[in-house]
Design goal:
By secondary structure, this protein is of the alpha+beta class. It is 16% helix and 36% strand. Strands 1-2-3-4 form a four-stranded antiparallel beta sheet, with helices on both faces. It has a four-stranded mixed beta sheet with strand order 7-6-5-8, covered by helices on one side.
Length: 120
């Protein structure tokens, strides 16, 4: 069975040498953009509706250098890492998504790396 990262990597429009680092399904209740598939490469953030993610034209892209990414935990005191991420682009457009599994959230935090800012 092909992993979600491999599926997304074969569909999204990537630049030469760009690698998809992680991908996850996001429920409609855990996202301001509805039920979606979200992926992070070493240069871009990709997202598409879950019902159409196999279509190349359904994917939207944000350059990681052009967005601010903040993370927050569901509870005020959390021993685990944050699972909710908010993406704010340079035009002020923002959306959020929440990952259900700690493992996925850790992969996204690692992929965002230095671009991940603390919640203001």
């Amino acid at each position: 069975m092909t992993s979600l990262v491999a599926k997304v990597g074969s569909i999204v429009p990537r630049e030469s040498g760009e690698r998809v680092l992680c991908a996850a399904y996001v429920s409609g209740s855990g996202s301001s953009i509805g039920s979606a598939v979200i992926a992070v490469s070493d240069r871009h953030l990709f997202f598409a509706p879950r019902s159409a993610f196999l279509s190349r034209g359904a994917w939207r892209t944000r350059r990681l250098d052009d967005v601010r990414i903040e993370s927050s935990a569901r509870r005020s005191i959390s021993l685990a890492g944050a699972r909710r991420f908010e993406v704010i682009d340079e035009d002020g457009y923002a959306f959020f998504f929440e990952l259900e599994q700690r493992k996925e959230a850790a992969e996204f935090r690692k992929a965002f790396g230095r671009r991940l800012a603390a919640k203001r």
